[in-house]
Design a protein that fits this description.
Number of domains: 1
Helix content: over 70%
CATH architecture: Orthogonal Bundle
Shape: globular
CATH topology: Hydantoin permease
Number of strands: 2
Strand order of the largest sheet: 1-2
Bound molecules: 4-fluoro-L-phenylalanine
Strand content: under 5%
Structural class: mainly alpha
Radius of gyration: 21 Å
Length: 466
């Protein structure tokens, strides 16, 4: 039974854990592909603006709701006196649940590649696509079988998460992040030096710093905004949970700016690693996004790079740390809710929850493989459709739940709890918040309008926004 609430033992512990949540597959896997598609430097610049104007204020808002309420994500809205808004917390918890189901499986694939490059790199180089498909249950000549490799590695990945969560906030999450995050930064720097010193990397570098007006479109702006939310873990109520473990003495503004800077830095550095490396080894037409890119195209990069195998292991280790620390934050916010709301015991809750999410995740992996599992979706253009189960899961979180939860937080803080209360929470302990007027306007008018636009557009046109 969780009686007294856990707290971070130190400022650094919190910062690393929150940065660990933000820095994940979204930064290292999704961002470079999106930056390439969105015109390189053009996308990077717009992304930076989105982080400054929407990311920072929303993160600050979620952290202040968490710290003011000292409660889990559903309890937070009750505690701040507005039962009617607890749906926002529910959307957050359910969203985190759905994301974890598939995030943990992709995490398992990453683990598979750490082991793969360490022990059987020549097999990957010989047939990168075949190796990826074999993991998902496709054999030679159209043979298909249960994707047991992917499932097995996902099980190990989930187990690693559960062990950390069971140990608790301070002993588990904080301690893991204190090791994982510095390791991640070190590996990142090593890879950056490797990538930019490859002969031919200049073209990729030039692409990432050049601004091209013709690439600027509404779609690019939306894509950057969706990516910023996903990358900063906004709209999943995780920051409310992590904020609730923060003591009053902490300066929320400084912490927010630091976390957003670290997250953005990692995304941009990942772009500066992957794009120049792909330009230098495979050529620009090979830069893509999605699973195929992180797992298939990069094989060619490592194969052609001196010391490639070592750098491959380092790269997937980097991705593994990033995925673990993000997945831990997702599970923690669900566990915090379940243990506090239903008075369940932490260890047993974590074990059962991890098991259920792992099993649902198996459906995600199977639908990537040969099993024709379908989900259901609706958008105004195509009407009712039956996409693959894995796509339906991602649509549900990226197109609906993340924007809906972020919108709910903005409406709640902007119009019900009031920005002045958030500012009062932020200014605890004599902190001065110089930009509070700008913040109030952003949270009351601009952010909800922008998010509503995302929500409507994604449901109306079926555009993928994150
Ligand atoms: N921010 C993480 C990433 O960039 O991979 C993913 C994520 C974690 C999204 C937690 C949402 C979330 F609540």
């Amino acid at each position: 039974m969780e009686n007294s609430r856990a707290q971070w033992s130190s400022k650094l512990g919190f910062i690393l854990a929150a940065a660990g949540s933000a820095i994940g597959l979204g930064n290292i896997w999704k961002f470079p592909g999106r930056a390439f598609e969105g015109g390189g430097g053009t996308f990077v610049l717009i992304y930076l603006l989105m982080v400054i104007f929407f990311g920072v204020p929303l993160m600050l808002t979620e952290l202040s709701v968490g710290r003011a309420s000292q409660a889990n994500v559903v309890g937070a809205f009750h505690k701040l006196g507005h039962r009617n808004y607890s749906w926002v917390g529910w959307v957050g918890v359910v969203g985190a649940f759905v994301i974890t189901c598939y995030y943990s499986h992709v995490g398992g694939w990453v683990l598979r590649y750490v082991v793969g490059y360490a022990f059987e790199a020549p097999e990957i180089y010989a047939d990168p696509l075949g190796y990826f498909y074999a993991m998902l249950g496709y054999g030679a000549q159209g043979a298909t079988f249960f994707p047991w490799i992917a499932v097995l590695f996902a099980a190990v990945f989930m187990l690693l998460n559960a062990v950390v969560i069971i140990r608790g906030v301070e002993d588990g999450i904080e301690r893991f992040n204190k090791i994982g995050m510095p390791a991640l930064f070190i590996i990142l720097v090593i890879l950056l030096v490797r990538a930019v010193t490859l002969p031919g990397a200049e073209d990729g570098l030039r692409y990432l710093v050049s601004f091209d007006w013709s690439k600027l479109s509404f779609q690019t702006v939306l894509s950057a905004l969706g990516q910023a939310f996903y990358s900063l873990s906004i709209g999943m109520a995780i920051l409310i949970t992590y904020g609730s473990y923060l003591p009053r003495s902490e300066n929320l503004v400084k912490n927010t700016v630091l976390i957003c800077t670290m997250d953005t830095l990692v995304a941009v550095i990942a772009g500066f690693i992957i794009i120049p490396a792909v330009f230098a080894t495979l050529g620009p037409d090979q830069v893509g996004k999605g699973g195929g890119f992180a797992f298939v195209s990069l094989a060619g990069v490592f194969e052609q790079m001196p010391g490639g195998r070592l750098f491959a292991v380092l790269f997937y280790l980097l991705l593994l740390f990033a995925a673990l620390t993000s997945c831990i934050s997702l599970i923690e916010s669900i566990v915090a809710f379940l243990t506090e709301h239903f008075n369940w015991e932490r260890k047993r809750t974590t074990i059962w929850l991890s098991l259920v999410m792992f099993l649902i995740g198996c459906l995600y992996t199977c639908s990537q493989a040969a099993y024709p599992l379908k989900g259901i979706w609706f958008d105004a253009v195509k009407g009712v459709s039956f996409p693959a189960f894995c796509d339906a899961m991602e649509f549900l979180t990226d197109r609906l739940m993340i924007p809906a939860c972020a919108l709910g937080v903005c409406i709640f803080v902007g119009w019900v709890w009031k920005p002045e209360s958030a500012v009062a929470e932020i200014e605890q302990n004599g902190v001065r918040f110089g930009l509070k007027k700008v913040y109030e306007i952003l949270i009351k008018y601009i952010a909800p309008l922008a998010i509503l636009t995302i929500l409507i557009l994604s449901l109306a046109t079926g555009t993928t926004l994150s």
